[in-house]
Design goal:
six-stranded mixed beta sheet; 22% helix; single chain; alpha+beta; 112 residues; 60% strand
């Protein structure tokens, strides 16, 4: 999931996400809600846009009861320079795909 997000691989994300995905995310400036893969893909476009190049800095996997947790950090490069972005995603499976997804984003932070 994190590597597909960094690669902006919409086709791979659609494979991973259930057609009836229940999605919510919180960033420092906005809350996103959606149903289906398009909700996540639309949010990812707002977060990362086409002008940003993302490299995976780290991925951390864990689970809690019936939820999986994926923490990931991206190095973001664009015309403004380099920044770090970190998100924590909690998810549950539905029919072999991600059916429930909550993401908390720390925002874009300057590299010091």
């Amino acid at each position: 999931f994190a590597r597909a997000m960094a690669a902006k691989d919409d086709a791979r994300l659609r494979e991973l996400l259930h057609p009836e995905l229940d999605f919510r995310a919180m960033t420092p400036k906005r809350i996103f809600d959606g149903t289906g893969p398009d909700g996540l893909l639309d949010a990812a476009e707002v977060w990362f846009g086409e002008d940003n190049i993302l490299d995976v800095e780290s991925v951390d996997l864990d689970s809690f009861a019936d939820r999986a947790r994926v923490g990931y950090r991206f190095r973001l490069q664009n015309g403004d320079g380099e920044q770090l972005v970190e998100q924590q995603a909690y998810m549950s499976e539905r029919d072999g795909q991600i059916g429930w997804l909550r993401i908390m984003c720390a925002g874009k932070r300057p590299i010091q």
